[in-house]
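We were asked to recover a plausible sequence for a given structure. The inputs and outputs are reproduced exactly as logged, with field labels preserved.

PROBLEM: sequence recovery
POSITIONS: 145
GIVEN STRUCTURE:
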């Protein structure tokens, strides 16, 4: 049962992205939608959050074992790019009220890389410290007695 919840944050964010990009139809009187390229900003933010969540979930699950930043980064990038590409194909081929757009995919990719960089440079060490066992924290950080 534990395995099903290993990537819960990633799954929640992927579900929100699915809803917003494939099911939700924005209203015509939405003021934000009238701002030029606002949809690209939204794509960047959605995939920033998705790649950050994938990196978080991956790191949290492997905090007690060694794993490389490269392995985690490649998984987050591959998953995010595939998901973003799939969404654009579905929008372009199956949803008449939507359209697939290479610029949206580029915004997804930019958000993915940005989210991953923010995670690696600002959050990873805190996630490891937060989720590592107390024994491991004592052995890696000897107290100054």
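RECOVERED SEQUENCE:
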């Amino acid at each position: 049962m534990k395995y099903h919840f290993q990537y819960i944050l990633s799954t929640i964010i992927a579900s929100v992205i699915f809803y917003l990009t494939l099911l939700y139809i924005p209203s015509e009187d939405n003021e934000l939608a009238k701002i030029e390229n606002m949809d690209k900003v939204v794509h960047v933010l959605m995939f920033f959050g998705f790649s950050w969540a994938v990196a978080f979930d991956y790191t949290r699950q492997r905090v007690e074992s060694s794993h490389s930043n490269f392995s985690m980064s490649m998984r987050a990038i591959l998953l995010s790019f595939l998901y973003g590409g799939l969404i654009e194909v579905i929008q372009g081929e199956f949803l008449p009220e939507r359209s697939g757009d290479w610029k949206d995919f580029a915004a997804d990719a930019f958000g993915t890389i940005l989210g991953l960089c923010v995670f690696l440079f600002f959050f990873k060490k805190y996630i490891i410290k937060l989720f590592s066992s107390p024994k491991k924290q004592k052995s890696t950080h000897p107290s100054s007695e």
